[in-house]
Design brief:
The protein is an alpha+beta fold. The chain is about 20% helix and about 40% strand. The strands form two sheets. Strands 3-6-5-4 form a four-stranded mixed beta sheet. Strands 1-2 form a two-stranded antiparallel ribbon.
Length: about 100
Amino acid sequence: MIFLLVGKAAMPIMLFEENVFENVVQNKVSNTSKGTELIISFDAESEKEVDEMAKRVEKAGGDVFSKPQEIQGWMYGFAFSDLDGHRWNMLYLDLPRR
């Protein structure tokens, strides 16, 4: 098992070996090469951070299926699949300040 803390809020993400995961969830692991069960989104501090992460993902062998880009005029992000086919989305949210 690998345990990661992501972002300022230190959101925990736990990655398990398949047999351990099946025991935890009491169900079979989905075949991510044939479909997608979810996408995990996480935040970025800036557009630059999004661009840098996209480069790191490609260098590590991930599949960037949506290149870094502006989305709906107030978001900037990209989406990728990891080596196991799980889908991820990193977003910088340029929310209006009040």
